[in-house]
Amino acid sequence: MSKPVILCVDDEPIVLESLRSQLREAFGECYIYEVAQDADDALEVIDEIQAECTDIILIVSDWLMPGMKGDEFLIKVHQRFPHVVKIMLTGQADEAAIQRVQDEANLHKCLFKPWSEIELITTIQSGLAQL
Amino acid sequence: MKRPAIICVDDERIILESLRDELRNNLAGDFTIELADGGHSALELVAELLEEGYHLPLIISDYIMPDMRGDELLAKIHQISPQTLKVMLTGQATIDGVSHAIQHAKLYRYIAKPWESEDLKLTVIEALNAYQQEQKLAAQHQELRKLNHALEEANLSLEQRVAERTQELSNALASLKMAQESLIQSEKMAALGQLVAGVAHEINTPMGAIRASIGSLNTALVRSLSDLPLLFRTLSEERWADFQHLLTITQNHQDVLISREERKARRRLTQILQGYGLEQAEELAMKLILLGITDGVEPLLPLLRSEDCDLVLNTIHTLAIQRNSGKRIQLAVEKATQIVSALKSYARQSNNTEMTETDLCKNIDLVLTIYHNSLKQGIEVKKDYNKVPLICCYPDELTQVWTNLIHNAIHAMGGHGEITIQIQPVETNVIVKFTDTGRGIPPELHHKIFDPFFTTKAVGEGSGMGLSIVQRIIERHRGQIQVESQPGCTTFIVTLPLSSMAK
Predict the structure, then answer these.
(1) B51: Cβ contacts below 8 Å, ≥ 6 apart
(2) Which of B283-292, B338-347, B441-450 has the weakest average pLDDT?
């Protein structure tokens, strides 16, 4: 059994790199940090991780992405993995979408770009504490 | 209405009476017959009758009378009642008298005494008819004059009404023009407003990356500052060489983002490292992967086995974080700069009212940059740009055209599909085609879509002015816009003349 996985989803490579760098800095070798550039890609990654008998415990997802948007993606994930902690990270607030994820995917928190490191890390910590 | 009066004047009573009798017999009581025995009494009688409103169609006067000659009397009566017909009756008139009467009294007839009864009758009846005709004509003339006057007045008031109406219409036109201008402006602002939300995301994304990267950079720097002295102090010659070697091979490495490959590489490397009998193979593999090392680990084995391994790998990694953070910040700044400069030229152009030579490809790309955010949601933009000369145009207005066409295309496709933009020179024109894979426009609406206020969008989503303004702008450039549409393929074809002399 490998280490649990934290998955970041965003269509911007620089955002993914920045997130991964921050997570690694904060949580070191406790987790494996996976990234995906869109929702479909992310769903595949989740399947593969599952196939490797590895647990995915937390997802940080952008909302505005090509193809499937963050709200739809997180709701889909929630239907299969209700225990995964879901965090949305968006540069553009769409109240209805946020509300939907809260209602249908038990959204842990919605963060706004540009996010602060402290906020991101404490949000992840508080999410993981619920597990 | 009083009966018309016929006046007979003679100084001999007997003649007067016989005249009266004859007239009465012949005229069947339609007239009043008045008699006067001399010039003065005749004048008095005439004045009296006129005052009482009688018509005086005829006067028959003797020529020789004691107080006044007949021609003299008739001339005087002519002055006060010109319309009355005058007949002179005498046995011994001079040529002078008759011609005087003709000249000054418009003598109608001269009858010699003793008169023929039939002659008198005919003369009188004829005179009365003539008078009646005259009266009728005068009445008609009067009527015509009235009509003419009324027409003139009507004409005058019509002119005035036309002038008033013209003024009203030109006022209305002026306010319509103002309304149109403000609609164009608000359409522009609406388009801009739609963009702003997307632009916020576009800018917040690189901002987030910059903020995060600066955090990483600072933390890594602090760590480097504490690691490096230790490294310099404790590293052996061999490990120092390993360190420098690693530094070189990681120099150009950028984070590999494809998760799947990375995972595979990690698994493979873990197995390889386990094959070499290394402990904590998975963590080591992870660290090497982070540095971009996926294979060829054999030369590194001495390092990996040494006790300085963690220190060296961590230090290299910390340096790589700083380098990568720097690169990310650079990329993010470029991204933000790009979107800001696109916005700036969008705004700057808005004040540009002069025609300038413009590169259409750049003009369209500017809009694509601003719409990048909406487009990347599920729309593939295919560009088929052929080389076209610069064209003289109002770039900001054309920007508005492209903005509208792209916005409509996104709307028609529900945010998912493909937009093909083709630019090509054809004879003396440049043709720009926007093709989308949206639901299409039904044929019966083709002629309506350019009408002001025509919209298929929900209330509040669009003013319906977009395409109407687009058409107006294209026409200002002496160009044309056409549409071809079927479900799944709608093309807006904009033709702009190369030598565009705007209206």
Answers:
(1) none
(2) B338-347
d(CA B399, CA B391): 14
Q: Are residues B278 and B405 in the same domain?
A: no
What is the reported pTM?
0.56
**Domain total in chain B:** 3
Residue B258 phi, psi (nearest 5)? -75, 105
Q: Chain B within 8 Å of A19 (Cβ-Cβ)?
A: yes
CATH code at A32? 3.40.50.2300
Same domain, B363 and B292: no
Three-class SS state of B329: helix
Is B271 inside a domain boundary?
yes
**B28 half-sphere exposure, CB direction, 13 A CA radius:** 1
Task: Measure the CA–CA gap between A22 and A78, rounded to whole angstroms.
Answer: 25
**CATH number of the structural domain spanning residue B34:** 3.40.50.2300
Q: State how far residue B282 is from chain A, nearest Cα, in angstroms.
A: 9
Dist. CA B470–CA B401, nearest whole Å: 5
CB contacts of A121 in chain B (<8 Å) are none
Compute the Cα dihedral for B408, B409, B413, B416 and give only its sign: negative
B218 vs A contacts (CB less than 8 Å): none
From CA B234, how far away is CA B171, in angstroms rounded?
A: 91
Contact B250, B320 (CB under 8 A): yes
Q: Does A27 touch chain B (CB under 8 A)?
A: no
Q: What is the pLDDT of residues B22-33, one digit of tens each?
A: 888 888 778 888
User: Which token pair is B44?
Assistant: 């008095």
Range of A124's domain? Answer: 5-129
Domain interval for residue B94: 5-115
**Could you give the CA distance from residue B369 to residue A124 in angstroms, rounded to a whole number?**
34
Q: Which residues of A touch B320 (CB under 8 A)?
A: none
Tens-digit pLDDT profile for residues B221-262: 999 999 999 888 988 888 889 898 888 888 877 655 566 777
Q: Do B332 and A114 touch (CB under 8 A)?
A: no
Angle at the Cα of B433 from the Cα atoms of B430 and B434, rounded to 5 degrees: 145
Same domain, yes or no, for B386 and B454?
yes
**Domain membership flag for residue B330:** no
Residue B255: inside a domain? yes
Q: Do A22 and B212 touch (CB under 8 A)?
A: yes
- Distance (Å, rounded) from C-alpha B205 to C-alpha B213? 12
Selected for mutation to probe chain B from A7, A8, A17, A121 (highest B CB count within 10 Å) is: A17
Please report whether residue B502 resides in a domain: no
Provide the domain count of chain A.
1
Q: Determine the residue among A21, A61, A87, A94 to mutate to test chain B binding: the one whose Cβ has the most chain B Cβ atoms within 10 Å.
A: A21
CA B451 – CA B444 distance, rounded (Å): 13
ipTM of the complex: 0.83
